[in-house]
Design brief:
Keywords: Electron transport, Fatty acid biosynthesis, Fatty acid metabolism, Heme, Iron, Lipid biosynthesis, Lipid metabolism, Membrane, Metal-binding, Oxidoreductase, Transmembrane, Transmembrane helix, Transport
Strand content: under 5%
Structural class: mainly alpha
Number of helices: 19
Subcellular location: Membrane
Pfam family, one: FA_desaturase
InterPro entries: Acyl-CoA_deSatase_haem/ster-bd (IPR009160), Acyl-CoA_DS (IPR015876), Cyt_B5-like_heme/steroid-bd (IPR001199), Cyt_B5-like_heme/steroid_sf (IPR036400), FA_desaturase_dom (IPR005804), FADS-1_CS (IPR001522)
Radius of gyration: 35 Å
Shape: elongated
Function: Stearoyl-CoA desaturase that utilizes O(2) and electrons from reduced cytochrome b5 to introduce the first double bond into saturated fatty acyl-CoA substrates.
Helix content: 40-55%
Strand order of the largest sheet: 3-6-5-4
Number of strands: 6
Amino acid sequence: MSACHHSKCVSHIETQSGLRSRDHIADTPITVQNWYKHVNWWGVVLTILVPLYACVQAIWIPLQWRTAILSLVYYFVTGLGITAGYHRLWSHTSYRASNGLKVFLALGGAGAGEGSIRWWARNHRAHHRYTDTNLDPYSVNKGLLYSHMGWLVMKQNPKRIGRVDISDLNEDPIVVWQHQNYLPVVIFMALLLPTLLSGLSWGDWAGGFIYAGILRMAFVHQATFCVNSLAHWLGDQPFDASKSSRDHFLTALLALGEGYHNFHHEFPSDYRNATKWYQYDPTKWAIRIWEYFGLAYNVKQFHPDDVQKRHIQQQHAILAKQAAKLDWGVPPSRLPVLEWEEYVEQTEKVGRCLIAIAGIVHDVTDFSESHPGGSLMLKSLIGKDATAAFHGGVYSHSKVAHNLLATMRVASVRGGCEVEIWKTHQHSDVEETPPMCRC
């Protein structure tokens, strides 16, 4: 047997058995026999088992008020490491920062325990470039739970994540240093530092480890996860409805202002998530303070006109969608066309209650008795060109009258108005009605 033939046989056998080495486990069906291979056990330990352990320990370990304050302060420090650092600085380059500020944010982000800057920003850029598609690493279209944390606890084929450019991150020495030394940095910043601060300052070693360390980190995790899930499911879409991103105060409150996600997806390089002064966005406020002290510069912000334009366009789209559900009458382009003589004949010989306004014939049979100006006024215009009367010659009708009239369209008149035959009807008395009109 030739080597080539042998190779083909082996390849065929591997294909049939589903054991080809190049197949990623995430691309194979989950079964009773292989389910554990689909699980990202590091993700399970970090996001589920460790927080559960801390919750159990919290039953016996009292929360001291100093430790509670430390946990809150450290939540803001590590949270800003993610929102102002990982997200707005490195993922979207919304501003530039001094080396000192970058080190602070890199260490704070490590304290959140959400992976290195390089890994986090790479996934987030893919999320923006391929939002709501299969190339989005945490697409909400794969399920709310999946976008929240399922993408972390179940293995993903890295080749299935959309490609993005991270050359700038690879050239940033602080990003490279943090990525290469992430494990010792995250252990120290996420667990050891809060434990040491609490233990050395007021003797609460266990409380510092459980509350300011693990539970604080778990809360930052869940707050960030909400931006991937709730911010694509709950809230309003004032800037764009073509994607799933949404604005909601609850998500902003949990994630230090990151909840105004619909704005963010439309203007990703803007240093803000919230544009109104009263909207909760402490990350925006922190960046402005750093800019004041010279720690942040080249802060990017879209012109208010650009923001307002997109908001108005979205409002138009919403109104157009609502308007499409209403009866606006038959479009003029779809109406049958009558000659003026045919229109007059329909009123005089057939007895239909028709009125021509601006070249459109309207059937007012069911409306004549409820006409606010009285039925006689309306009947006097049967079979005539009532354009001038409708547009101010008798009464300048309201927008409501225009809308109501549109629902009565039945035909259009070739040429738009009466011609020679008009002379035979111009002396009609106000109270005269067509002979056979059934109004």
